[in-house]
Every structure is written in C-alpha cells, then in structure tokens.
Amino acid sequence: MACGTLYLVATPIGNLEDISLRALRILKEVDLVAAEDTRHSRKLFNHYGITTPLTSCFEHNEARKGERIVELLAQGRSVALISDAGTPAISDPGYLLVCRCRDEGLPVTVVPGPSAVITALALSGLPTARFAFEGFLPAKSSHRRALLAAARGETERTLVYYEAPHRLLAALADLREELGGERRVAVARELTKLHEELFRGTVEEALAHFGAGRVRGEIVLLVAPAEAEPERESLEEALARWHAAPECSRKEMVKSLAKRFGLPGSEVYRRSLELEGDEGDGQSDDSDH
After folding, report:
1. Mean pLDDT of 68-92
2. Which residues are the signal sequence here (predicted)?
3. Helix (H) / strand (E) containing 184
4. Among the four 33, 192, 253, 280, which has the fewest Cβ within 10 Å?
C-alpha cells in the first residue's frame, strides 16, 4: 500500500483572499487537516466551504500528535498541515513533524503561499538582496539585547524579526541601546489587512511614532544593515601623506595626529622621524613638539 503525503499548506496572513487555488483544492481533498488552532482555522474553512476533518497540532502537542499523523500517513491517508497564518514550520509548528516524516521516508511537499517575512521585506524599502530571518525576539530583555548586540557589525543583510505588539516598544528601546538611535528600521503591522501599516525610519523615530498610542496587530520588525564605516587611515599612512606634501609644520602635524589617534605627541614625533629614516632630521627647527 502506498504511503500518504503530508502537505504543508500556506494560509493567509490576514486577507482571506490570499490563498491559492491549489491550497483550496488540497485542503478539500486530504483526509485530515492538522491545524495550529482549530478554532482559528474554522473561519477559513467556513469561508471557503471546506468540510475536511480538523485536528489540532500546536507547539505543546506536536510531538505526541505527530506520532498519530505519521501512523495515518503510513496507512495511506493524506494529511495537510496548516498554521494560523503563513507557512507551517517557519516560526510555527511543523518542524518536528517534517523531521519525523523525513526519517520515516514518508512523502512531504509544500503548497507555497503567504509569508509575513517576505511580505514585510518587499514592502519595507530596506535592502532586499540579502537578509536573515531571526524568528521571534526573546521576551526577556537581557536575552533580547544579547541577540540584537550581535547585529552591530552586520553591514550586508537586513535582519527580520517577529515581535508581539505589547513588546514592540521594549524591543525598540533595546535596539536603541545596542545599535543606536540612528539605525534604520521598518515596522510592518497588520499586513494585508484593512489597517495595514508600514513605518520606516530610525529607531528613535519609531519609538516616538509607536509610543504615541497602543500598538495593535502582528508585528514584523526589520533592521537595516549598518552603514559601513569608511576605511580609517592609519598613523603611518597619515605620516607618509604629510611627508609627501606637508600642509603644516611638523609641530602642528604632531599635535593634530596625536589627538586623532589618541597617542602621546612624543610617540607620533618618533614615528615620524623613523619614517624619514633619519632620527636627527628636523630636530633643529621643530624641537618644540
């Protein structure tokens, strides 16, 4: 007897019209649909006249329920897995079940569709060539700050996080502490719904904007890459430039470079002479360094 197939079916992230014809067909044809929240998914089913039996499969019962689903698949039954919104197994239940099916050699396929990550990224106006999805930010501030601190030197990728609306201000405050108030961010809220909002600006501006009232709806927080700092000129390069075309006296040059590089004037003076290859050169007229 042939094994059944597990279908990972993406469902709307807000607007019920955002579901594919294939997804509707699969949800009607399979023997069972495993849903993150059967009450939530019932709204989708009622809207499209889907009568397939529903069973729950969420974070706290996925391991146990997964065993039953694997048994059904082995018996030739087909099962669709859906989350409350978006694609299953992406910051939603499904990973453990997919792993179990792969280990058992059972067929798994995806019916692609809505994704809050991709939707927010495309809408954000932040760089999209490279990005990293980091899932939900930790609820505890110390853990959240440790994660955000790792993004200080990220100069190539936009970072994407999920966040709960009641923690958005705390997350932005932690962002300011770890990355600075001028780091560019985008905050997507209520994606594809009637009151969809995309805020784009600095961390400081985001705090002012969202601090003005209660934050509602599911949140996607995007952090732009840090602007790469221009390559800093080394002391040796600065000294060589001065020797090639002096624009001021040695005394003025030593004072300026000592302040710029945080070094004693005597150290800058010594290295200047070493660069010339003659430690005695210039001491008679510039000894007042």
Report:
1. 96
2. none
3. strand 184-189
4. 280
Structure tokens at 71: 């048994």
Does the domain at 6-114 match CATH 3.40.1010.10? Answer given as yes
Mean pLDDT of 147-166: 94
Token pair recorded at residue 272 = 């200047």
CATH number of 117-223: 3.30.950.10
* 28-37 per-position pLDDT tens digit: 999 999 999 9
Task: Order the strands of the 32-35 sheet from edge to edge.
Answer: 54-56, 32-35, 79-82, 6-9, 108-111
Least confident range of 20-29, 76-85, 266-275 = 266-275
Distance CA 160, CA 137 (A): 10
Looking at residue 42, its amino acid is R
Q: What is the pTM of this model?
A: 0.77
